[in-house]
Amino acid sequence: MMSKLNKTNIPFIYTSILYLAGLLLFLEWLYPVEEVTDTAFIGIFIIYAFFCFFISLLQVKWWLSFILKGFGIFFILNGLYSTNSFWSKLWIQEFYTDIIYNIESLLARQWFDLSNMFRSLLFLFIIWLMSYLIFYWFVQVKRVMVFSVLTFVYITLLDTFTVYNADWAILRTFIIAFLALGLANVLKEIQKENLQTYRLSAKPLWILPLIMIVLFSSMVGYAAPKLEPQWADPVPYLEGVFNGNGIGGNGVGTVQKVGYGENDSRLGGSFVQDYTPVFQAYMKEDSYFRVESKDYYTGKGWVNSDRGDYVEQANGDITFETFSPNIETEEQHVRLEFDGRAFIPKLIYPYGTKHVVPSNENASFMLDEQSGEIKTQVDDREIVLANYEISFDKPTYPIDLMRKSETPTELDNQYTRVPPSLPDRVGELAAEITSGYDNQYDKVRAIERYFSGNGFVYQISNVAVPSENQDYVDQFLFDTKVGYCDNFSTSMVVMLRTLDIPARWVKGFTSGEKVQDNVNEEGDNLYQVTNANAHSWVEVYFEGVGWVPFEPTQGFNVPNSYSVDTSEEDDVLDAPEVTPPAPEHPEIPEQEAADAFNPSDSSQTKLEFTKVHGIILGVVLLILVGLLIWKRHQLRIYLLERKMQKRKDAATYQDAYHYVLKLLKNKGFQKEPDQTLREYATRIDSWYGSDEMGRLTADYERLIYQNNLSTIVDDELSNLWKNLIKRILG
To answer: What stretches of 136-263 show up as alpha helix (H) in DSSP?
Structure first.
């Protein structure tokens, strides 16, 4: 059996480095979470990981560690999900209610009903537990290989099957893992051979060859030429197997399952169809169903630059308007019945919606006037209503008025801005397409018609994903010309904006498939809407008219009604020539990425982590670090003193004696290379006028030459050590 000395004679600095390597490897598990899931505020979770690992490294009492880490969890949850003060009773009640609700959901196996607060709580608990587990793996038993291999497997699988690019993550993991493996093996040998580690801690140059070898190997591996893939990409095949609908060939980018998604900041990639029902609609004629719009194009996708407060719509009266009240309308009704297999806790509504009658009389509707998103809630919890009826005024857009429309003055540049990185040739192409027209409406129609030919192809497979330095629209317009609704609609919006024509990107559903005529006394038809009918299109603003939908995607026609004053303009009523209709294409579930302005939330209202909480958290961390630096000697002395009282073994005394040498060195008492420990002790005792250093050194030499001692620290020796420490620090 290995003695206690062999288990504990490793300097604190080396165990700290080893534990830091474990933390860095664990962070590689956290970095992709924000990009491949609906998790936001990943930086907060990373800060909490540092906090937990720091406390575990100090090895404080279990009850103090429990209090500190638990406080961190409650503080973060309060900042993310509550507007109440951390010390408020309302926050405690809110937290308690949420926990009870989620426990009931777990017992009922309603996994999708779990709140975001509860999911975050579980995530923080995992980070807490991992801080203990990695300390055990890396510091106590020094089994680094298992976790390193698991990290490699994790990030390579994400790189293969998701949008996460793990090139640099693999390189980082390689460097960290091999440095940790090398250090762990050296420390194992130190324990095995019972080496005097104070020599290693005084001159840590031995670690430099390890660092140089690992860095050199990493650079060679990164820079060396590599063969092209020898096997076909397995992703399209596996996606086809799991979804029952495969796509042949070598896909460009990732292959995904279709449906309505929350985050649109990374667009691109192939997809496979999914005909899972979302809802049935009872209505007289086709209609596009709106969900929300987005206004800021990032070069890779769409985000909302500003999301204001949600306003409750009293008594089901919807105040959101997309067109002027002066526009001619026809009152209509639609009834939506949901299948229950899709979780979209938002109102799915046609243009001109004015009143909603929900199946649940306790339902409320929360409107974001910026995007038109309307959340459906019951008791402040987002849910999918079983059904609801909508009364709406279907508009008829006047073409003559739109032709007279000028650049609106009531809008700011919110709907005309494009990213500075947008290539100039996008704007040049838009100007060339519209050069023969002198009014806004005809320019919009010209760009809409442009996509019906000119080499563009509607396609769901082999759809490219832009590289890091490539613009999504520029790639589609000039390089690939292959894509689906996201490509067509985004490109039209961006080209219009280069002409200073206000436009925004809209997402929702098409009418789906008509499955039955005249199903009730009102003469309604029955439409089946599935995930495959998720769609994106364009809205353009005309002064005096409002926002008008347009459809650039091949194979789709927006069901607009128009009015004209003269028969000479009948041609504009016809939809542009298009290629034969393609299968209705949904919007793909967008890859998770950092939302530059406002992170999205998929199931529950998520309140921003306020600046005040961030400042408080930063100040607390700075205070903790400052206290640690200021009281580092007192903390180390306290820990060594407690250790000597409990263990009284040779390894403990060795650590205590080495700490005395370190303090003396910091005070300027450097031991000369040719000086023995006894000579050095005589010099110290002469300076302080005592014999404590000599007596401690005599016991230390006895430990070196008789390393089979199991007990060496007694009360007298402990008092000598404490007295000498006081003299040095006094």
So the answer is: 144-161, 167-193, 197-202, 207-223, 234-243
